[in-house]
Amino acid sequence: MKVAVIGATHAGVFAAKQIKAEHPDAEIDVFEKNQTVSFLSCGIALWIGDHVSSPEKMFYESPESLNAQGITMHMGTEVVEADLAAKHLIYQDLDSNKKTAADYDKIVITTGSKAIKPNLPGIYSDKVFDSKNWDNANDLKKVTGDIKSAIVIGAGYIGAELAEQLSVNDKQVTLIDGLDRVLAKNTSADFSRVFEDAYQEHGVQLALNQMVESFEETDKGIQVNTDKGSYEADIAILGIGFLPNTALFKGQVKMLSNGAIETKEYMETSVPGVFAAGDAATVFYNPTGRYDYIPLATNAVRQGVLVGKNIEKNTVAYQGTQATSAVELYDLAYAATGLTVEAAAAKGVDAETVTIKEDYRPDFMLSTTPVQASLTWEKATKRIVGAAFLSKHDISQAANVVSLAIENKMTIDQLAMTDFFFQPNFGQPINYVSSVAMAAAAKAAK
User: Fold this and answer.
1) Catalytic pick from 10, 74, 88, 202?
2) Is 127 in contact with 180 (CB distance < 8 Å)?
3) Beta carbons within 8 Å of 49's beta carbon, 6+ residues apart
4) What is the pLDDT of residue 446?
5) Using one digit for the tens of pLDDT, what is the confidence trace for 166-186?
6) CA 196 to CA 211: how far, in whole Å?
7) Per annotation, catalytic residue among 23, 42, 88, 202
8) pTM of the model
9) Is 10 annotated as catalytic?
10) What confidence score (pLDDT) does residue 207 get?
11) Which of 355, 305, 298 is nearest to 322 (CA)?
12) N or C terminus: which one in the chain shows less Cβ crowding within 10 Å?
């Protein structure tokens, strides 16, 4: 079996490794236009903030290690033409410009995503930085130590982390977003307020509910003009979001309107023998029961593994995702899974939510700290569709617990009565996951 894997970020790396594990005799060609693989881009803000032990450890694989595993890596190589039905590719060496044609039995599309970069006046200034890949991370690392101020555009996870790390390193930061609150697509309003207070306590200027219109270089650095004002700093950093990097395959395979390639439960696309995974592909979103586009490394890794398991025959079906995620800002840990009540309404799910706040362990302990917890459920069925947790205590695994509950279609009543241990070093007699589920059940019963 001869397999082409197009792209070598998380999905591509895990797909190639799993194919080789399942089919040791398979010939696997991986095409990657960059010179690195498996970069953990979620660590960019931490590296800029000097919280990374070594940048080399931000990679869990290398081209050399993959070659040693019997996978042929074509680095600095871009697939420039693809006939998916015929399994025919033309790829180009970006140094020599030499083009080569090859035919395959199977094709795996793991081309990832591209950063959203609107065509605004001045956006291609060398004072405006992207925050997507290893090259972007290097460029930022070179300048952020010397700057005194920065404008971060986009208050999702990426922009939020960049703004936080720059501010705790004594930079003057302005955080701009088109929505009316920070982390608006990730949190409910009551959680956003906690983070907004933290930003302001650390001197971050919040410029919310305004759209960037242009960039202008100045003697100081860069001026960002929005529909409501102008802001000046040494540099600006874009963290607006991502779109699927799938233009090469348009018209050959079924896609969502944004270009995400539709996949079936065994990761095959609408073209037999062609698979897709990661940020280039859709996910099955369990909270809504529909396919969606949610670019997360966790989705990419699991989908890549499934491609390897199903490359020859349907073996392991995709279980879907809850899009479980987390972020830590100013020592506040936030972890969430599934839908907020606002996101549920936007996606046509009639949902209700409840929020509680209580100490994570008994007050007789010498120390404890509050946990803010919310649970969201579908009104008609009481099926859990989302949860969020916020604390200075590590609450990350609580989101994983509720993620499992959502995947298994548990109700708020079932979660309220689920067995969780009690030991005062770790929690209350009623764990806060149980407590928020009980509060939900009580609210639903009214």
Assistant:
1) 10
2) no
3) 164, 165, 166, 168, 169
4) 86
5) 999 999 999 999 999 999 999
6) 19
7) 42
8) 0.94
9) yes
10) 98
11) 298
12) C
